[in-house]
## 1
Amino acid sequence: MMWQWHELTNETKIALEQLQILQMAKLDFNGKSICVTRLEEGFFGIQNTCPHAGAQLHHGHCNKRGVVTCPLHGYKFDMKSGRSVDGNNYKINHYPFKIEDDKLWIGIKQY
Ligand code: FES
């Protein structure tokens, strides 16, 4: 498995840079709806659709460790790995970000 890196537009970069730490937003990219949050160490993304019953995770809450709580039934996901952290055994899509050449890039898994 490898990450394929995609450059985001400058508008997207500017919009995400306006997020406060722990604030979440929805990013539509390449047909995917992604829940993005900002931690001290940078941006992290997971699929925005909760695998339990389809709530939008960006309406939930994120803590300092990067754990997102779904707004509907409170299932918890790690933004950095996409894994459940509440014993529910889900593994959802996650998306790393990086800044390189003053541009913001998102990683999408390539199998
Ligand atoms: S829809 Fe997310 S926990 Fe139920």
## 2
Amino acid sequence: MQDDDQTPEYRFDTLAIRSGVERTPFGEHTEPIFLTSSFVHDSAAHAAAKFAGEADGYIYSRFGNPTLRTFERRLAALEGADECRATASGMSAIMAVLVSLTRTGDHVVCAQGVFGTTQQLFALFERYDIETSYVPLSDPEAWAAAIRPNTRMLFVETPSNPSTEVADLRALSEIARRHGIPLVVDNCFCTPALQRPLALGADIVVHSATKYLDGQGRVLGGAVLGGNQYMNEKLQPVLRYCGPALSAFNAWMLAKGLETLSIRMQRHSENALAVARWLQAQPSVEKVRYPWLESHPQHALARAQQDAGGAVLAFEMAGADDAERRANAWRVVDGCRLLSITANLGDVKSTITHPASTTHGRMSPEARATAGIGEGMLRVAVGLEDPADICADLARGLG
Ligand SMILES: Cc1ncc(COP(=O)(O)O)c(C=O)c1O
């Protein structure tokens, strides 16, 4: 195979299109899909050498596959990571990291308000006596105070979902380094097109590739990225023995999705800012949360660590009490004809959801209140339609 691997001096947009390609002797221009569960060996001795790790070559798609390798090497180039491993979903990526870093009796510190299923996953691991403490995302002092002698991982998602709170990744990595604990960042909302956590000091990045890496709502996928030692010694055995492998077809979709990541994220961000500014001017809207708005509490920090604001914004409908705020929010959802009423995000199609009754509905009301998720809050993942049409659609239910 001819290997068109990335040359370090290539810039982001070139790496997104050209890195990770392994051309076969057929000379195909587009990356091929290797839909095969296993790979053949030249002889018994060759098989033995590959199994013993003494010869290179693919064995079985649970451990490695050339199409997955294309996606992994391309994403590693974009995140600036030594290594990347693809997984079947974002949740399996987070689970693999948790399993790789902890054992019975260990402790995790996590940002309040991370994706609801991530919190459910951490709760599931309480059965193995692995406890999680939740801390305010934007308060580094609280992170430092929550660390115990048995803490094995700091986990953060920034900007947060749905409140778009921004964590100071440099400050958190400094705390992590001081205590010798890895900082794990879920970079789902920004993607490496807008934010590169490893360059800001983080140790491990996880992705729900289902979202903006694919970008068109087609396939599930996930990824873990980090340094060689962690990836080869700690993560790879978990993936090999637990088997949350990505399908080659999905890996191909994701590798092709990366080719347009940068222009998509720029346009998502421009559209989201236009919609956020318009929402700010609507009398029935109490508050708009979007990191690129000057009114956002961590606007300066977002500008320092992100290249643009991303696709996701949240806004709050006014109301005399919780019941009225919920009714007003639901009226906006029900008035939409263009925006899709779905909890997913990361699509060219704009989506709208009421977090308190959907994605974050399983949290206790107290936990929701702490994470700033009220009954009047709506989350919009702004797509690539014309922003004027998105605003007109929202206007119908605003009152
Ligand atoms: C921030 C974040 N992380 C992880 C996940 C889980 O990803 P997946 O659905 O691919 O398992 C999601 C899904 O919505 C998410 O929004």
